[in-house]
Amino acid sequence: MFGKKKQTPSIDKDQLELIENAQKRIKQKKRLYIHFVVFLIGAVFLIIANTVLGIGEDFKIAGINWFVYAILAWLFLFIYHFVNVFITNKFMSKDWEKQQLDRLVAKQQQRINKLEADLIKDDNKIVKVEVPEKVKTTTKTTENKSNTELTIIVAAGENNAIGKDNNLIWHLSDDLKRFKHLTDAHHIIMGRKTFESFPKPLPNRIHVVITRQKDYKAPEGVIVVNSMTDALDAARKDDNPFIIGGGEIYKQAMPLASKIEITRVHTTFDDADTFFPKINDSVWAEVSRTTHGADEKHAHAFSFITYERR
Ligand SMILES: NC(=O)c1ccc[n+]([C@@H]2O[C@H](COP(=O)([O-])OP(=O)(O)OC[C@H]3O[C@@H](n4cnc5c(N)ncnc54)[C@H](OP(=O)(O)O)[C@@H]3O)[C@@H](O)[C@H]2O)c1
Fold it and tell me: Does residue 244 line the site of ligand 1, with CB under 6 A?
């Protein structure tokens, strides 16, 4: 009952094979060594047999004693044995060694891949726990606040219009300045169409472009992903990534975001073709508002409004 539990070996099949082959190799070298010793003793014995004991004393070939031929023949055998073990590696060739090395490398690579996959799984778990938490709870807890904040930033008309023909409908320079200021040095997550509406990537921001196209080509530095989950994953080290549009992406990000920075343009744009989802007051609480009148630089009056998830 108190006996030591029998240990099961933790060596796997490949490792066992390597050990067995190493043992075989040692045996080969040992046999060669024994052969060498036996050859030396044998050679001396042949010499003594012929010269001292007089065995076959008169048997000569081309005037040379027979034992010289016998020793040379044996020497040939010994050299052949030596060459097999050390030079041609007949039993365990260089190919075999390379094969073993490749297998070891492949095995290590497999382990590295598994570790990486586990790491990604763990990271995803963190994202999955954080994000749906914000979806499920309508109350923003302190715990959520300490996690990554996901902010939607948008400019929308009174009827939630945000764009037409893959472009903005207005030009409001103070709104652009605010956008620039808030998103500076952050990840900006956007749909492929919004990205293509820019003449070029915006400076000092990390662009994350969502597309279903597997081979979508974007300029260097732009991160291309195939889903919202991957976009959030790409931005996971950012404490406040921004969802910057357009309509399709806003719709998918609404349940995930913790904050909305909206520039409410106080005009109704009937000819728009893209819209922002309705902001539900039971989910979102207005926490700040700054109003800006129309002027020579701004064709429309607008308000900067911040909403936080209740
Ligand atoms: N007023 C504002 O603040 C504001 C801000 C941004 C944009 N906009 C406007 O919004 C309009 C563009 O919005 P939009 O709705 O047409 O397009 P969008 O949301 O910018 O991009 C849509 C594209 O994103 C990709 N996508 C969407 N969901 C995806 C998913 N779950 N997985 C993988 N890929 C996904 C698809 O790309 P693929 O087709 O390549 O698969 C889809 O065609 C433009 O008029 C723009 O000017 C306005």
Answer: yes
